[in-house]
Amino acid sequence: MKIGWIGLGNMGVPMASNLLQAGYELYVWNRTPEKTAVLCENRAKRADSLEQLVETCDVLFTMVSDDAAVKEIYTGTDGILASSAVRGKLAVDMSTISPDTSRTIAEQAKQAGLRFLDAPVSGSVGPAREATLVIMVGGEQTDYEEAKPMLDKLGKIALHMGPNGAGTSAKLAINLLLGITVQGVSETLLFARSLGIGTEQMLQIISESAVGTPLIRGKAASILADDYPAAFALKHMTKDLRLAREAGVSTPLAESAAATYRHALEEGLGDLDLMAILRHLDS
Ligand code: NA7
To answer: Where is the 6-phosphogluconate dehydrogenase NADP-binding domain positioned along the sequence (predicted)?
Structure first.
């Protein structure tokens, strides 16, 4: 079994590393080729083009930024679907994109003879490294079963949610809660501070209370240091809340959160962790 991995960003590198660790033969491609070095020093082989990757590999994984990136990789002039070698193979897209785009790519892939799963993840860089991601899969049951042993090396659970688009729909829903929660924590801390309660004290109270979560405990050190290296980049949260809005469902809290992330992005905080909205709200 030869696996092709496309997209070596913050998430792609640790995830692809876990497939290597699990003993799979791994070929990698990234738009910026230098980023393949870290994996190629560790037994992965670099493909010079998507065409070469498709010809060599049985299963293709994509983990890239957004709808535009996924479209370019699958349906661009030199994209995956341009190669006749895709016939009979399986593609697993783990990027967070709109359910509509997942369904469209799945249909185009089908016409080219490529089977396609949307399989985005909940969890940031830490869970990616520890292979404890939560994976939500949309597509045919048999394709899901074929991918499952590989997905099990990337996450603690890989659930089949339904047909194509169901994985990305579930992902938008869970990230809606994430976006709202981080805004809620930020407002709570700023509210408490205005009433004379220090952030460290308040974080302790939250952690010990019923609303304390691993998410909030995990962000505490970052909040106290006002230092936000990206575990999950604020720009990606902004994108996910925009995609959620495009679903056309009334979500007043998420609407408010979407505006906050958008303003923080405009302020130049996009490459920091999503928790950096606290810095934006505090300014
Ligand atoms: P990053 O760290 O921003 O990495 C994004 C990756 O996507 C990186 O490999 C990029 O290549 C690649 N990319 C972006 N645009 C393109 C295009 N147009 N063509 C090819 N490749 C592209 O994101 P994360 O790893 O944190 O997140 C990945 C997904 O998981 C995202 O959907 C999140 O919302 C969740 P580059 O290195 O810049 O050349």
So the answer is: 2-162
The CA-atom distances, in angstroms, between 246 and each of 63, 123, 169, 241 are: 22, 23, 12, 9
CATH topology of domain 2-162: Rossmann fold (3.40.50)
Choosing from 89, 110, 171, 235, the catalytic residue is 171
The architecture in CATH of the region 170-281 reads Orthogonal Bundle (1.10)
Is the complex ipTM higher than 0.90?
yes
* Model pLDDT for residues 213-243, shown as the tens digit of each residue: 999 999 999 999 999 999 999 999 999 999 9
71 is an active site residue: no
Look up the pTM and report it.
0.95
Instruction: State which ligand 1 atom lies nearest to the alpha carbon of 66.
Output: 32
Say how far apart CA 213 and CA 220 lie, in whole Å. 11
Domain limits, the chain: 2-162, 170-281
Ligand 1: centre distance to CA 70 (Å): 9
